[in-house]
Design brief:
With 217 residues, this protein is an all-alpha fold. The chain has helices at residues 2-31, 35-47, 52-70, 74-81, 88-91, 95-107, 112-123, 127-130, 137-150, 157-212.
Length: 217
């Protein structure tokens, strides 16, 4: 019993590891932000009332805006210039540095209506949801990231990659188990079909007898 309980706990912990690591690894691939840094930013987002999905969506929209400005889009250039950030200042930075720079400038906009409008121009529909995270600018985000490091919440790239492998193996295992159950069902189908036909006949006779003998029943 103790062994079974321990095994259940270990399997549960492995499931959490696989899911968390897989989520972070794939978000890292989509955004270009390292797993370590992204896990810290995800903590900052969570502490500010949003989540990793919203953060990722905002970063990807930001990257699209920056790419558009670099390709000559006047609309994208104007969105950046409204915050006093020329496109040349962003091109040499990593995605997380770009996010913090723009977030820092956004936090300096005094008018809340204009700030919200600029946030949506830069980060899309996620912009207003990211405003609490960026309320204190880059310094506020860095403070929360430092707390994540202090609490041991920074995820390592190699651990996230191991989680992806485990998740894929567990998925393959479950598919194999289901196919095994299907094979058993295939072997039993003829006998079970015959049994079902007999059972249907018995039930029909029983139902008819009950209908004809309601008072007795």
């Amino acid at each position: 019993a103790a062994g079974a309980a321990a095994m259940t706990s270990l399997v549960g912990a492995s499931g959490v590891f696989a899911k968390m690591g897989d989520t972070m690894a794939k978000a890292s691939q989509r955004t270009g932000i390292s797993v370590e840094r992204l896990s810290e930013l995800a903590y900052a987002a969570d502490q500010s009332g949003t989540d990793l999905t919203t953060l990722e969506t905002g970063v990807r929209k930001m990257q699209k805006t920056i790419a558009g400005a670099a390709a000559g889009s006047e609309e994208a250039r104007q969105a950046l210039l409204q915050l006093g950030v020329p496109i040349q200042h962003l091109l040499g930075l990593s995605p997380d540095q770009q996010f913090l720079l723009l977030g820092d400038r956004l936090a300096q906009v005094a008018d809340p209506t204009r700030r919200a409008a600029l946030a949506m121009e830069l980060f899309g529909k996620s912009g207003t949801q990211l405003l609490p995270m960026l309320a204190d600018g880059a310094a506020g985000v860095e403070s929360l990231a430092e707390r994540a490091r202090m609490l041991g919440l920074t995820m390592r790239t190699e651990d996230a990659q191991a989680a992806v492998v485990l998740g894929d193996l567990m998925s393959d295992l479950w598919k194999t188990v289901k196919m095994g159950a299907f094979a058993v069902g295939t072997a039993l189908a003829p006998a079970l079909s015959d049994l079902a036909r007999v059972a249907i006949g018995v039930v029909r006779v029983t139902v008819a007898w009950v209908r004809d003998n309601r008072e007795l029943v």
